[in-house]
Design brief:
By secondary structure, the protein is α/β, with parallel strands linked by helices. It contains eleven helices and eleven strands. The chain has helices at 2-10, 33-41, 57-65, 82-86, 110-127, 140-154, 167-181, 216-227, 229-236, 245-262, 306-332; strands at 22-26, 48-53, 72-77, 91-94, 132-135, 162-164, 192-194, 201-203, 268-275, 283-291, 294-298. The chain has a six-stranded parallel β-sheet, with helices on both faces. Strands 9-10-11 form a three-stranded antiparallel β-sheet. β4 (91-94), α5 and β5 form a beta-alpha-beta unit. α5 packs parallel to α6. It is globular and about 55 Å long. It catalyses: (S)-malate + NAD(+) = oxaloacetate + NADH + H(+). Substrate binds at residues 100, 106, 138, 172. One of its GO terms (biological process) is malate metabolic process.
Length: 333
Amino acid sequence: MKAAILRSLFRKSSTELAPERKVAILGAAGGIGQPLSLLMKLNPLVSKLALYDIAGTPGVAADVSHINTRSEVTGYMGDDQLKQALEGSDVVIIPAGVPRKPGMTRDDLFNINAGIVKSLCSAIGKYCPNALVTVISNPVNSTVPIAAEVFKGLGVYDEKKLLGVTTLDVVRAKTFYAGKAKVNVAEVNVPVVGGHAGITILPLFSQASPRANLSDEDIKALTKRTQDGGTEVVEAKAGKGSATLSMAYAGAIFADACLKGLNGVPDVVECSFVQSTVTELPFFASKVRLGKNGVEEVLGLGLLSEFEQQGLEALKPELKSSIEKGIKFVHQS
């Protein structure tokens, strides 16, 4: 599956039948934004690519624009150009914010990134209220509720069009599972539910395909590594970065799925952190079916193992707290 999507991102294909689609990337000059801009330039479903940041975007846009693919690239910089960047967008991707550093939890990022997301979503609500908005900025467990509250305040909230990007958790779970099970990673599928931080990340290895007879200890170790994947990269980079390249890849994969859904491709299913009734929590990551209106259907969790059921109950208090923290931020700031 991963390989097939990757081929779709890099293939040389006819785009005569593909609709015109504008994608805006907010935070395009950052550590995630630059490789994400490159990957979206390679996507033949994109006809216009708007790259926005507070600084550095003219250079990124000039660089990326020389690539001989379909999309027309324009760089926008500063608050006064945000309106132009957003107008007419079909999909808006938000990787803007500060990265994690050694010893920093996702919670430490909160005050800075929460303010950035609130400001950007205020502009989205004014200039492209019908766009499908995908949020990468951490902590996703709080920034998605922040975006929802901002849109509600502007009277433009559509729960089908606001999606938190948890695809990196799925990408990691697939990679780690394939390595342990000794199967072709291109054929692996692993749903990951819950949230997008620490123990709120719950990979459902009992539902992984192809099936493998892994021990309980292996499953626990794979779960822990998936949950700690971001920390693994932060520590490996020794204070000089976080998971930017793999996050850009995951963001591009998810944006590709969103574009396919908008274009009417049937049975596009990805995991995402969305408004949900799957549990008692107002937001939750699970498999969703993407379509012409964004999230067409939020799918249930399916049958869980005892270990996964315990993980589900354990994550709920932390996820609930993160969601409430995001909502509170909007109403107190």
